Amino acid sequence: MRYFVVIMAMLSTLCVEAADLSQSAAVDALIAAEAPFGTRGNPGFVVGVARHGKVLLAKGYGDADLEHDVPISADSAFYVASVSKAFTGFAIALLVREGKVDLAADIRRYLRSMPDFGAVITVRDLVEHTGGLRDYGLLAKLTQRSRTDWLWQEQAVNLIRHQRSLMFEPGSKAVYSNTGYLLLAEIVRSASGKSLREFTAERMFAPLGMSRTVFADDATEVIRGRVHGYSRTANTWHTSLLNAETVGGTGLVTTVEDMLTWLRNYGAPRVGDAKLIDMIATPARLTVGGNNYNFGVITKQIAGHQAIVLGGEAEAFRATGFYFPGDDLAVTVMSNNLGALTAKQLAEEVASIYLGSPRPVRAPAPPRDSRSRQAPISAAVANEITGQYRIDELDTTYTLQLEKGQLVVRSLWSVDAEAKRQSEWSLWSPVAVTLTAVTRDRFESNSFAFGVLQPRRDEQGHVVSLEIIEGALQGLRLERVRENKQ
Length: 486
Hints:
The chain folds into 2 domains: 244 residues, Beta-lactamase, CATH 3.40.710; 102 residues, Beta Barrel (Lipocalin). The chain has an 8-stranded antiparallel β-barrel. Strands 2-1-14-13-12-11-10 form a 7-stranded antiparallel β-sheet, sandwiched between helices. The protein is α+β, with helices and mostly antiparallel strands.
């Protein structure tokens, strides 16, 4: 009988190992279908899967450094963009449980330099993306400085401090906010006496043995195994530079196995406890694009199973992490490219393989609208809108003029043409902005920061300002500079 039990145990182990190999092979096939992404000489992905704390897959596909022919591996350190918010949110949750941070408190209790915006912004508003503060990255973009310029944490805080209004009443709606989580990092510093990097290293990463995870608050720092991001124009790869030193909403660098360790902590917490995890996983009061963001994570169904979801994208980096509490399964995908398949899509397909769920059907890319939306620009419209405008909060003056039949917005830092190294991701592009006149009172820009502009007029009908009416900078105005008449 004893030998029978031993034999059955051995057969069971062999079956599990065979299943693991089959699932791993299915992931290999999934990546192979994305060629050239994920092949040597091209950027790619790292994929990680763990069940019951055992790593089943931690494998790299493609290159981490194209210049030096370095492959992506389990040892590669990826910048994970907004996945960082989950770690900042967790740090805040720890401080809340310790009584050092009050979610209902005015943020000015912890951030003395913040001005009175005319309404109370609570810590919970920052956590749930309901604070109404404009995006600091887009504010920097409005200056039309180059994406290669450094952006320090203090500079970002200054951009926020100098705003004169909010986009909306705090708590009344939710708009995804990098600014909110940058300020949460500053609240961690104020409440704990330690920087976000120091606090998370001591209180979160060290206890879990996550020695390869860090909030990279120094852009010049050498990080072992760091992966470079890449974007493409025509047949040329270009490096996506990461010169920002901002943390909170972004800034985390980690490896696949460290990320799997972190995801397991949601199910078997060694940092925090079950009550803290419940607080984090409780849906927020309002949704952003249908998602309940709370403490930097989303709870939703993935492949038919309830999951805690982490996600981020910036420059050429994409990252996703899923933890399935009912299955004790962790899945993560990180990439260093802007290929057709996102990290989130790949992670969903990997999760379906290991959950035994039907593979999700990929939605076809929406067809591009090739129709011209530009209304003819009459001389009258051009005359009434062209001129100089200014945003005092950014200390930036713009010239709006007609060039070859097209309305163009320039600042001191603008360049004339699309630089050849510009690619799919051009958040920090210094290229002059063009405006499309959809109607007399609606001008759509080719810039994510400028968005849609609406002229504001005085009683005589003269244009006195241009207001951004959509996006994460809505309500901000470019005030017209009055001409000195002599």
